[in-house]
Structures are given as structure tokens and as C-alpha cells.
Amino acid sequence: MTRLTATFLMVVLLAQIAPVVSARSKGDWNAVKALEKHSAAVKTKRGETYYGRLQIVDETSIVVQIAGREDFTGQEIAVQRDEVQKVWNAKLRFDEKNIAKGAWIGGGAGLGVTVAILTATGGKEDSDRFLWAAWLPVVGAVAGAVAGVFWKKKHKKEELIYSI
């Protein structure tokens, strides 16, 4: 019993200490300088996150050219160094669509509807239910792929470079 209690307490203590150890500050501004002319995500102390290309990085501030959904916008934002909370490498996804993801989701929904139909009509003699059951996942996948054409991917944060 005491061995079990000691093990439990050890696990609880390690779970409490682990986030503190992993949340170390990455305060190297030179790493941010190395990202000049590359895509990045910048989070300010006000909680705003900007995706774009770091145009100018110096000791006191950074200038970010804002990325829109289709391409870079003409807008640039200057952020003082003391206002920057975090900086990540970013993957800017201009005009990327979720066709495959939509097809998988639609196919899965079609399969779920197929199972529901076959379960609900299990005791009846109807040959048409098998025809519908075979085509519903295909129709769902096509509908999901069409929806995925209009469902665009968002820009994505990657490796954390700077944090205070």
C-alpha cells in the first residue's frame, strides 16, 4: 500500500513540475533576426497574432508584412520589441484547400448514414436499400470534396523561435 501511495505521489509531483520545466523562456532576439525575409507568426502582449513575412528586424522593433488569405497584403505593421510576446516560424497557406479532408469527412458521414439505414431496415425485404448503402459513402465523399474546395486552410504556426 505504501509503495502504491509513493508511486502515485511521485507521478503527481512530476506532472506538476513538467510544465514549469518545459515553459522556459526562449529570449534570444538573434533567432528572430535570422527570420528576416521569412514567414513568421508574431503574437503581441495584447493577444493579437499576425501572420506574414518579417520585413525588418532590428534591436528595437520588427516590421511584419501581413499575409491575407490569397497573398500578402499591402499592409505592414510595426511592433516594438517590448510588445512582442512570441514569434514562430509559420507556414503561410495561400489558396490551399481542404479537398482531401472534406472527402474523408464526407465519406465517413456517408458510411455512418449507410450503417444507420441498414440497421433501421434490417428486417425488411428491400433490394434498393443495398444500392443506396453502396453509393452513400461515395456521394458523401464527393460532396465533402466539393465542400473542401471552398474550405481553405489557415496559416499555421510551426516552431517557437522567441518567447518571453
Residue share in β-strands: 25-35%
The side-by-side strand order for the widest beta sheet comes to 4-3-2-1-5-6
Can you tell me the CATH topology of the largest domain? SH3 type barrels
The chain-level mean pLDDT equals 81
What characteristic shape results from the CA principal axes? flat
CATH class of the largest domain: Mainly Beta
Distance between the termini: 44 Å
Number of domain units: 2
Give an account of the 3D structure:
The chain is α+β, with helices and mostly antiparallel strands and 164 residues long. The protein folds into 2 domains: 25-94 and 154-163, SH3 type barrels (Roll), CATH 2.30.30; 99-150. It is built from 4 helices and 6 strands, in the order H-H-E-E-E-E-E-H-H-E. The chain has helices at residues 2-22, 29-33, 99-120, 128-150; strands at residues 39-44, 49-57, 61-67, 72-80, 84-91, 156-163. Strands 4-3-2-1-5-6 form a 6-stranded antiparallel β-sheet. Strand 2 (49-57) and strand 3 (61-67) form a beta hairpin. The model is unreliable at 20-24 (pLDDT under 50).
Task: Summarize the model shown.
This protein has 164 residues and is an alpha+beta fold. The chain has helices spanning 2-22, 29-33, 99-120, 128-150; strands at residues 39-44, 49-57, 61-67, 72-80, 84-91, 156-163.
Keywords:
single chain; 164 residues; SH3 type barrels; 2 domains; six-stranded antiparallel β-sheet; 43% helix
